[in-house]
Fold this protein.
Amino acid sequence: QVVLVESGGGSVQAGGSLTLSCAISGRGFTIESMAWYRQPPGHHRDLVASISFGGNTTYADSVKGRFTISINLPKNSVELQMSSLKPEDTAVYYCALNQPSTSNPSWGRGTQVTVAS
């Protein structure tokens, strides 16, 4: 069983920065890609950023230039550096692991990010 645990969420003023981390533990998993999603109150969960095993990244238009995703393969972890935060970035942020052998991602439980105006 794979377990993903997010950390680093919190409250920050607009314009501030936060770094989220996601640690993967368990046996028998293979990282194809990892991603961060977010779900604002009353909205769907949407992709924020993703990174492949080879380091290729994609970002939602709303966070380009402000967020940076990185992966640490030896530590089985992924980070999301967030800067110039806006109130509309307020959401629960989820880490996801995609594996070649599975059709659905594995999810963490999420971490709350609140940006005050």
